[in-house]
Design a protein that fits this description.
- The protein is α/β, with parallel strands linked by helices.
- It is built from 10 helices and 12 strands.
- The longest helix has about 35 residues.
- The protein is about 45% helix and about 20% strand.
């Protein structure tokens, strides 16, 4: 249902007033064969939503997958083939490519980041810094690449952040209110910015301590203070260039907004390869 709504909105952007170019050149009887081709090396993602886009425009378009989500595709390789109405293929082209390019960009970055984390035994996870309305697609692409998901929505877990702490008065007060309201079973994560806040979060009974915008040296010091009493998550300022430095500090988890908020899309294109009629 969510995918249906996403696809409907995306197609409306292109087709709500028609396609003046294609509708002028072609008739509904014209048919063609097309491929979608990688124009650079990438980790493929978005095949199913691409299929649904073409089906939404025209259920008679034949969609043949040549690769699968998660495959490492080389520049010049075809990933899928389409046969059907020329008009339908052209009308669905850009929407399908937009999804595939963004999702393949995220999956490709995720594959690279996961490989770095694996070398140091660190789990790499995403954040909620996703494209509005596309969170489930962004987070699916993260999983395809090999990283993990953090919260999908605010209801998924307790995370006491800086503004919660400021409004509650202290880390201790915020944790106490949570424990009084929801009991002992959910894990409680607390965001901290220095070692004194780490000590307070430990004393309050936090299960997960996020070290926010700290240097690798600060992280090492905080990890020594925590000494296995809580899960250590690092976040803030981590990117492709410095990820390995943060992994060397050996936190349990690194959460990266860079997995989704600013990953370049990968380049794929649709090419008509045969005019059938």
């Amino acid at each position: 249902m969510i995918l249906d709504k996403i696809i409907e909105l995306a197609l409306q952007e292109d087709l709500s007033l028609g396609d003046i170019t294609s509708d002028t050149i072609f008739t509904p009887e014209n048919r063609a064969r097309a491929v979608i081709r990688a124009k650079e090396d990438l980790v493929l993602c978005g095949m199913e939503i691409a299929r649904q886009v073409f089906q939404a425009v025209d259920p008679t378009v034949q969609f043949t997958a040549l690769k699968q989500d998660g495959d490492e595709v080389k520049k010049g390789e075809n990933v899928l083939e389409l046969t059907g109405s020329t008009l339908s293929i052209l009308k669905a082209e850009r929407t399908a490519l937009n999804f595939m390019q963004r999702m393949s960009g995220i999956a490709s970055a995720s594959r690279a980041f996961a490989a770095i984390g694996k070398r140091y035994g660190v789990m790499i996870v995403d954040t909620r810094k996703t494209q509005p309305g596309l969170r489930r697609l962004d987070k699916y692409a993260v999983r395809v690449g090999g990283c993990r998901n953090h919260r999908i929505s605010l209801a998924d877990s307790v995370m006491i952040k800086d503004n919660h702490i400021a409004a509650a008065g202290s880390i201790t007060a915020a944790v106490q209110k949570i424990k009084a309201a929801i009991g002992h079973t959910p894990k409680i994560e607390v965001e901290t910015t220095n070692i004194e806040e780490v000590k307070e979060a430990l004393a309050a009974g936090a299960d997960i301590i996020m070290l926010d915008n700290m240097t690798p040296d600060q992280i090492s010091a905080c990890k020594k203070e925590i000494n296995g009493r809580a899960i250590v998550e690092v976040s803030g300022g981590v990117n492709a260039q410095n990820l390995e430095d943060y992994c060397k500090a050996r936190p349990d988890v690194i959460s990266m907004g860079a997995l989704t908020h600013s990953v370049p899309a990968k380049d794929l294109s649709l090419k008509i390869v045969q005019y059938i009629s």
